[in-house]
Amino acid sequence: MKGTSTPVAHTPVMLDEIVSGLAVKPGGLYVDCTLGAGGHAEAVLEAASPGGRLLGIDADPRAIRIAERRLHRFEGGCALVNDNFGNLKAICLAHGFAKVHGVYFDLGLSSMQLDEPSRGFSFQRDEQLDMRLSERQALTAADVVNTYPVEELARVIWAYGEERKSRVIARRIAEARPVKTTGQLAKIVERALRLPRQRVHPATRVFQAIRICVNDELRNLERALQQALEILGKGGRIAVVSFHSLEDRIVKNWMRQEASSTVYNAEMPLASTERIPALRIITRSVVTPSEEEIERTPRSRRAKLRVAERL
Ligand SMILES: C[S@@+](CC[C@H](N)C(=O)[O-])C[C@H]1O[C@@H](n2cnc3c(N)ncnc32)[C@H](O)[C@@H]1O
After folding, report:
1. Residue 197: which CATH number?
2. Does residue 12 have its Cβ closer than 6 Å to ligand 1?
3. In the chain, what is the straight-line distance between the N-terminal and C-terminal CA atoms, in Å?
């Protein structure tokens, strides 16, 4: 492991809303798909006492080590697994969590990951372009930036960063290859966009896009949501906190589709079949943090919570 500096504490977002959204009850079984520093896990385990159990998953081995220390007192009540939530069902079955009362996701990165030197997630420092959640993953940000054909790079920046000037940026990146560091990349984007000074750094969308691509974030989320349906018992709840519109759109559409009794045929839009819905949506409209929480934890301002119940 590179750069073992003291990790910056991560404040869990919408903690009360998640615990009440999941309707956590004593003795229940819960799965935290994005364990991080274990803040949500700790609150869920407390609310599920006595007798509750939790399976915590994180793709980042460093997160598991931090959460282990925090959740030490629940030993026996929790199992922590270093894996990707894209493998949710297999992980749950392997650990005896076949039918659970709640599954939740607090997507994105923790403050520890953003602040840890040499992870390459942030353009606030100049470091190697990495952005992997786990060193076991082969693809790095440097690979995407330096080896993807220009059109493919532009597609990534457009699709995952929703950046309108994706083509210009991709071209400038290709011209500057090899791009070795986050600082270099941030400068290239800044010059390509030539925007007046703003509150949000012009490279924010490009960094988000490359991170999503490196970690295949959207596909893993889609996989995990589908698998969550199979491990949730009747009346079990799923809660998802997302931090950008691409994730929230996936969650919203998936919940709506699974809560609908009509399935449309993609090839014949007018043809549809009826079925028994798998979910009931609990949060009719998206839930956002209170003003006090945003004041206390500015990072929470983009959080959006959606909750549904297995039928
Ligand atoms: C916002 S943090 C979670 C913080 C946590 N709820 C807490 O209270 O400390 C998100 C975590 O999810 C993990 N993560 C992101 N995508 C993942 C994936 N596909 N599989 C497993 N873990 C993932 C990240 O490594 C990170 O630790």
Report:
1. 1.10.150.170
2. yes
3. 44
